[in-house]
Amino acid sequence: MSKLCCAVLLLCAAPFLLGQDALTRLVAESTPLRISEEIDRTKQMDALRDWIESRLPANLKELDASFGNLETRLNSELERAGVAEPEDSGAGYVSKLELLHTAEFPGALVVRAGVSVRCGSDDSVYLYRFTETRTRLIEARGTHEWGNSVLETRFSAPDALGNRIFLVVWDGVSCASVWNVIDYRLFRIGFQESAVPLFASVHGFVLDMDLNIKLTTQDLLIELGEAAIFPGYRRTYVLHYSIGPESVERIDPVALQPQDFVHEWILRPWEEMQSRSSEAVAKWHKFLHADRVSGEYDFVQPCIYRPGFTQVGVEFSSLGDREIPEPLAVYFLIQDKGNYSYEMSEISFYPQDDCPGESPAVDYMEMPSLFKKK
Questions:
Q1: Which of 41, 89, 100, 275 lies 20 to 30 Å (CA to CA) from residue 296?
Q2: Distance (Å) of CA 30 to CA 84, 121, 139, 145, 271
């Protein structure tokens, strides 16, 4: 055989040999985790990423030609190596490998890859752009201590310059409770060699309720269910953000009814609620603000003699970890400015005289939504 033929064979075999080395490393990093969950799984996740990249096509032409069965082939290889998660396995396996490649963004490939942990999967998200070459734009992992299961990856449509926004949402791995958190992040995808991180946040979330999302290049809207002011119940939370060239800002609506606005106003920092408040209530926010609040609505009363205003009476049982007098009754006057935009106008220990009546709060089972019910 000529030297030229040998050289060609070695060149063709190089990617396969590299992939075998990466798979051997993945098996080696996975095995110890089956014995002890105290071992850091970062090395296993890194090894999984490196093996995936050793198997991905090198350019867009190859991706289009091979994508039809690429995910199946990769998962089959994991199974043959004994590293794919069997049923009831526990830690130390590859629990997820999903490839997303859409006609709406033909040069992009999203990889969602997870390693098994107790009660779930700890998922990473990778975004690649394919042209004549392949470039990794994003490597993202959640922040929950026990693992992060990816709930959503989504692109916006492109703007006039061809830029897109990419959203990743995880929830925390949990063995039993439906009370959880989401970890959500925004990136701008332009023509740079890497994506630009724009925003990251976490928020409470009830797993057995819908997670509604709308994404454009200008704004992000997330609607979800989480704890209401009355213990054990839920309410609608609205997370609406304006996406600017350099920053992301929360905008209205922040609540869909006056009683929920009261709760949101207490939970969120003054920097976020100042623009939704009169000057008279700054001291009240300092007094009432806490990350956790429990209480019961006494009434939610539209003001007959003051159109556009609603009085909400709340009897608090806790404000964070502070000791409070019992009972602590506080009365909030909220102005409805239209389109679910509210302002905290006045607060007092006494009801407003020009808002007579004691209409009950909206039933907790009637949760308003900006999205059509399924």
A1: 275
A2: 10, 14, 20, 19, 45
Distance CA 262, CA 355 (A): 17
- Tell me the Ramachandran region of residue 120: left when phi exceeds 0, alpha when psi lies from -120 to 50, beta otherwise: left
pLDDT in tens, 79-109: 999 999 988 778 899 999 999 998 889 999 9
Q: Could you count the other beta carbons within 10 Å of the beta carbon of residue 112?
A: 18
The two tokens of residue 284 are: 């009240």
| Residue 269 preceded by cis peptide, ω within 30 | no
pTM: 0.90
12, pLDDT greater than 70: no
Distance CA 239, CA 204 (A): 11
| Residue where the block lists tokens 């039993």 | 176
- The residue type of 55 is R
Q: Listing from the earlier edge strand, what are the strands of the sheet with 342-348?
A: 293-302, 309-319, 328-336, 342-348
- Give the separation between CA 117 and CA 91, rounded to whole angstroms: 4
In sequence order, the β-bridge partners of residue 249 are 242
195-251 pLDDT, tens digit per residue, is 999 999 999 999 989 999 999 999 999 999 999 999 999 999 999 999 998 899 999
**Cβ neighbours of 143 (radius 10 Å):** 12
Question: b/e map of 322-351 (b: 16 or more CB within 10 Å)?
Answer: eeeeeeeebbbbbbbeeebebbbbbbeeeb
